[in-house]
TrEMBL record:
Example of a GO MF term: magnesium ion binding
GO cellular component: cytosol
PANTHER family per the UniProt record, alphabetical: PHOSPHOGLUCOMUTASE (PTHR22573:SF2), PHOSPHOHEXOMUTASE FAMILY MEMBER (PTHR22573)
Cofactor(s) listed in the protein's UniProt record: Mg(2+)
EC number: 5.4.2.2
Pfam family for this entry, one: PGM_PMM_I
The Alpha-D-phosphohexomutase alpha/beta/alpha domain, residue ranges: 14-151, 198-286, 295-407
Record-given protein name: phosphoglucomutase (alpha-D-glucose-1,6-bisphosphate-dependent)
Length: 543
């Protein structure tokens, strides 16, 4: 095997964010960009020699080209085997599962997740470790540090591998194994959930719409929902992965999945609606006439997970990211199990899951998952909902109302200001940080601040500390404001303002969240002068 050791120079800015390295696709297409990052990754993990990697992506523009480069570099760096999803496709949770069941040393996932795709949009690369989860900060830091000193990368000169030919082939001295992206994942789902009960639910006339948003879950949803569970043909829409996601924004929220929302709120709504994102790790849940916020979904799933075969023994604990509403904490309290509050990003759940301290995890950004893999998992959440609905034989709306009656309703909304001036946004956060100690006791309309801090997290398993994870302002009347800057964007800065207020009075459970949160929204504006900082009258996206 002839290995070319190619001289290179460090490329600035190859710093992984909340979930891997994300840039404009054209940046990834500049000479040596992918090569440098991959070599830095291999170097940072002690080399690739003798190792097995799982490789796949969400099918966006440049997916296959990047995979071919990675395969040539893995071979040149001495990897023993690469397991690749057919067509270069693997959803993020399916990749996590494959790493685990095949006991691979790690994986490379090509995706910019919910960001749009195409030559003028976004691309990304994420490294996952042997537990199947996103690399922890210690590893992403090591990768970034290596990108700063890199002077060569190894690659072999070979023809492209046929990514559509199932089975084994060789590339240099390395085995490339092409697997069907759905098989192992579907087997795991049938183990966790009562497929017979869900099949009976569909057979009884239960109707559903699943919007795959032209992204990677299409093949998974077709196979599992329609073929295995008997949902009517046509249940899955936008089910063929497209390099630019049909020109859309594969982010399952009421704004970007507006077609599904319109259907679910209209006269022809099916019983249940769901959507997933670019790489299949997010989920949106909608009942007939009722949207379920991701934070509520986590709480409802936690309260009912024991109804599914995979969770009959109950939960060890529930973990949520800090900005996620505290609805799940109330369930944990009632169940008498621990509740964990982690920084944003799935990598922070890894240790809790590995250590058996948490069983269910969730984020307000439409990520929910469990210890079955080490990533959030869109279709898993949809199947758990279906399993619970099949057992409880209730509508989503009745389930949600019953949940609120038991636990109270945590009204919740996130306001995003996208593509704002990065310097101004950072100054706003820094300034807020400096004023935190002056906030307690100050009043904003009917609300006053109880405490305010700059969220820092100490991992209970390995003791590692992550600081500056967001500004947290706790107010009276069960209100809370969180502010942080996104770590997944590719243009300017995105300011995220997370708003929450608890309502205990059942006669006030059917308010419009924006209305119910108006005092909290006004307090956030008064505290942080968001309009002035962003130069915007209103957020770009409200979820
Ligand atoms: C966002 C979400 C975060 C999520 C991350 C990756 O990060 O807020 O909850 O884990 O995206 O999701 P940020 O830093 O932009 O707020 V995915 O589905 O894009 O991999
Ligand atoms: Co995603």
């Amino acid at each position: 095997m002839y290995v070319v050791t190619h001289p290179t120079r460090p490329i600035g800015g190859q710093k992984p964010g909340t979930s891997g390295l994300r840039k404009k696709t054209k940046v990834f297409m500049t000479p040596h960009y992918v090569e440098n990052f991959i070599q830095a990754t291999f170097d940072a993990i002690g080399g690739a020699r003798g190792k097995t990697f799982v490789i796949g992506g969400d099918g966006r523009y440049f997916n296959a080209q990047a995979i071919q480069v990675i395969l040539r570099m893995a071979a040149a760096n001495g990897a023993a085997r690469c397991i690749v999803g057919m067509g270069g496709l693997l959803s993020t949770p399916a990749a996590s599962n494959l790493i685990r069941v095949r006991e691979a040393d790690g994986g490379l996932i090509l995706s910019a997740s919910h960001n749009p795709g195409g030559i003028d949009e976004d691309f990304g690369i994420k490294y996952n470790t042997a537990n199947g989860g996103p690399a922890p900060e210690s590893v992403t830091e090591a990768i970034f540090n290596r990108t700063k000193t890199l002077s060569r990368y190894n690659i072999i000169e070979k023809q492209d591998v046929d990514l559509n030919a199932l089975g084994e082939a060789t590339l240099g001295d390395m085995v490339v194994e092409i697997v069907h992206p759905v098989t192992d994942y579907a087997a795991l789902m049938s183990f966790l959930f009562d497929f017979n009960a869900i099949r009976a639910l569909f057979a009884s006339g239960f109707t559903m719409r699943f919007d795959a948003m032209h992204a990677v879950t299409g093949p998974y949803a077709h196979a599992i929902l329609e073929e295995q569970l008997g949902a009517a043909p046509g249940t899955v829409v936008n089910g063929v992965p497209s390099p630019d996601f049909g020109g859309g924004h594969p982010d399952p929220n009421p704004v970007w999945a507006s077609g599904l929302m319109t259907l679910m709120m209209g006269p022809d709504a099916p019983d249940f609606g769901a959507a997933s994102d670019g790489d299949g790790d997010r989920n949106m849940i909608v009942g007939r006439g009722i949207y379920v916020t991701p934070s509520d979904s986590l709480a409802v799933l936690a309260a009912n997970a024991h109804l599914a075969p995979g969770y009959t023994d109950g939960l060890m604990g529930i973990a949520r990211s800090m900005p996620t509403s505290r609805a799940a904490d109330r369930v944990a309290e009632k169940l008498g199990i621990p509740a964990f509050e982690t920084p944003t990003g799935w990598k922070f759940f890894g240790n809790l899951l590995d250590d058996g301290q948490a069983t269910l995890c969730g984020e307000e950004s439409a990520g929910t998952g469990s210890d079955h893999v080490r990533e959030k998992d869109g279709l898993w959440a949809v199947l758990l909902w279906l399993n619970i609905l099949a057992v409880r034989k209730q509508s989503v709306s009745d389930m949600l109302n019953e949940h609120w009656a038991t636990y109270g309703r945590n009204y919740y909304s996130r306001h995003d200001y996208e593509g704002v001036n990065a310097g101004a946004a950072e100054r706003m956060i820094t300034d807020l940080r400096e004023r935190l100690s002056t906030l307690p006791g100050t009043a904003y309309g009917p609300l006053s601040v109880i405490e305010a801090d700059d969220f820092a997290y100490t991992d209970p398993v390995d003791g590692s500390v992550s600081e500056h994870q967001g500004i947290r302002i706790i107010l009276t009347q069960g209100a809370r404001i969180v502010m942080r800057l996104s770590g997944t964007g590719t243009v300017g800065a995105t300011l995220r303002v997370y708003l929450e207020q608890v309502e205990e009075d059942p006669s006030r459970f059917d308010r419009d969240p924006q209305d119910a949160l108006s005092d909290v929204i006004a307090a956030a504006e008064a505290i942080a002068s968001i309009r002035e900082t962003t130069g915007r009258d209103a957020p770009d996206v409200r979820t």
